Amino acid sequence: MSYAKEYQNSIQNPEQFWLDKAKDLPWFKAPNKALSSSENGLYQWFADAELNTCYMALDYHVKNGRGQQTAIIYDSPVTSTKQLINYQDLLEQVASFAGLLRAQGVNKGDRVVIYMPMIPQALVAMLAVARLGAVHSVVFGGFSANELAVRIDDARPKVLVSASCGIEVSRTIEYKPLVDEACIIATHKPNKVIVWQRQECIASMQAERDIDWQVEAKKAIPADCVTVKGSDPLYILYTSGTTGKPKGVVRDNASHAVALKYSMQAIYNIAPGQVFWAASDVGWVVGHSYIVYAPLLHGCTSIVYEGKPVRTPDAGAFWRVIEEYDVKAVFAAPTAFRAIRKEDPEANLIQDYDLSCLDTIFMAGERLDPSTYEWTTENTGKPVVDHWWQTETGWAISANPIGIEPLETKAGSSTKPVPGFDVQILDANGTPLPPNTQGSIAIKLPLPPSCLNTIWGDFGRFNDGYLTEFPGYYCSGDGGYIDEDGYLFVMGRTDDVINVAGHRLSTGEMEEVLASHNAVAECSVIGIHDKLKGQVPVGLALLKDGADISELELQSDLVAMVRKEIGAVACLKQTLIVPRLPKTRSGKILRKLLRQIADNQSFAVPSTIDDPSSVAEIQAIMQENGLVKTIEE
Ligand code: COA
Ligand code: AMP
């Protein structure tokens, strides 16, 4: 089948296309109807199907002869641990933990928040929640107690699952005190906190509330799979929007399973039984989709890597894992390869390993700059596939569909739309633009399976944030263009979301933290280009009259505040004191203009500006301080 034909089928007859793809999964009751829409315009895929995602990922494989195949390889250079868990063992662990959750009152539809490092128990917890037909919400371990509390209040979990600590390169991060603090900050209180105790640090427990996983799971009665409807939610994953409040992206069971199963062959060209490695974290969407669900739904072996691309112990770590476990496809953020290149620019360490098992390197999470693309291709001799996606979609919107038909690549492009995604470039009025003209990237409705159809508890926010700007389309928040051959070039966000080392963060949220400093009258946070992390945030602050604080002192206060309120991953290291910020006459800071200056893009000064001279002034300050992207970058 050619890509063109497959793509055409998916756009011209989406319902039949996806019903056919659904046949590849073991349903309790297969879907009869592909797409339905309810009164508020909410699209649902496979609402009449009955299934259990954990059954599809584990029980089905054990029943069909994969019990002894390795399901998860846990490789942890930070604790010098290597462990193989087969499908049978994983199923037993998941069923026991599901039994433990059930004993704590977790039933179908209940939420469970999971705040864990990259250890197999994080996957066990997710799958156990799915087994009960409950809804998990995993919070990335690099987020602060405050961020965890915000998510607890929104998801209102019955139970919170955590571990005693996470291990970073040079320090152990105690998770339990963060969990305790989050439970104090949050208005909603989980009934129970289940803790996996790691030998690197034993957490102290609260007598009434806390449960020791290792002790109690042994006594639990294993739980069987609970049947859910296709449209029932599998998980909520919070992602950064433009405001301080993260958005709870809701993923349905059936459509998620269908899209991910399809993607393993169509996009990643992986067959059941092969080893797939997504070097991400279960706290991000890449981790949900390609460390946990897709490889297991497809009967593959997935790698859980608790380490970094560098410093654990060196820049050869990725090549070592690929050789050691016979990895067929690896998937990571470009920043990981930039980190490797920085430490091993001549790629000497690659020579120490045999990478013949590896077919393809996939990258996503941020723009893949042509120089990183070329360095990786030349030094590994492997094809590099850049693919574009979002937490909201749960899988790639555009990619080189090598499992359907490998297309020629173009540096800087994530190739062509994946079957199911009708991608269009629109101008500000929603009119489609001709080839090679930059505009907003939008996707014609209905979105294909796996994409969100609401924000947890707030359909209005989903509608306002994604569907109203261009009626009939989903607005991606990214800008870019499609060239004359149909290749998509994603150029960056058109809103206040930034990508720091492949981590999606909101500058609006950081602004809220900066604004709470008692010397700051007004502020703005912008993402500036960074050679390693792609982007890093920088603050621009205007002091209150009479405030007596040096730039250095303010900077150190704000760095500490952002670390405490959001987490170390936010990486806000620099704040400049400025005399004023460009604003409209109604007092709105012109953030888009600041972004354009930082990105060295041409810009039009809006007619509503309060004082046009403020633009040249801020541009000069940003230039003097090296905040403006240079041509070479
Ligand atoms: N738990 C607690 N803290 C964490 C954490 C976690 N899970 N992950 C990161 N942090 C901390 C780090 O320790 C660091 O703290 P520090 O400022 O005290 O050093 C801070 O958050 C920033 O982390 P990071 O951005 O990862 O920087 P780094 O210098 O440690 O590593 C890279 C740089 C490029 C190697 C690393 O960012 C990387 O591997 N990125 C790829 C990201 C990725 O896979 N994204 C998923 C999307 S596909
Ligand atoms: P997240 O929801 O964390 O996966 O972040 C999604 C955002 O990351 C997108 O909206 C893009 O801005 C960016 N992104 C992801 N993949 C790519 C890519 N291949 N090229 C350019 N930007 C990307």
TrEMBL record:
Q: Where is the AMP-dependent synthetase/ligase domain?
A: 66-444
Which Pfam families does this chain map to?
ACAS_N (PF16177), AMP-binding (PF00501), AMP-binding_C (PF13193)
The Acetyl-coenzyme A synthetase N-terminal domain is annotated at 3-57
What domain of life does the native source organism fall in?
A: Bacteria
Q: Which Gene3D superfamilies match?
A: 3.30.300.30, N-terminal domain of ligase-like
Q: Write down the SUPFAM superfamilies for this protein, in alphabetical order.
A: Acetyl-CoA synthetase-like
Q: Residue limits of the AMP-binding enzyme C-terminal domain?
A: 509-588
Q: Record's InterPro entries? A: ACAS_N, AMP-bd_C, AMP-bd_C_sf, AMP-binding_CS, AMP-dep_synth/lig_dom, ANL_N_sf
Per the similarity annotation, which family is this? Belongs to the ATP-dependent AMP-binding enzyme family.
What name appears for this protein in its UniProt entry?
Propionyl-CoA synthetase
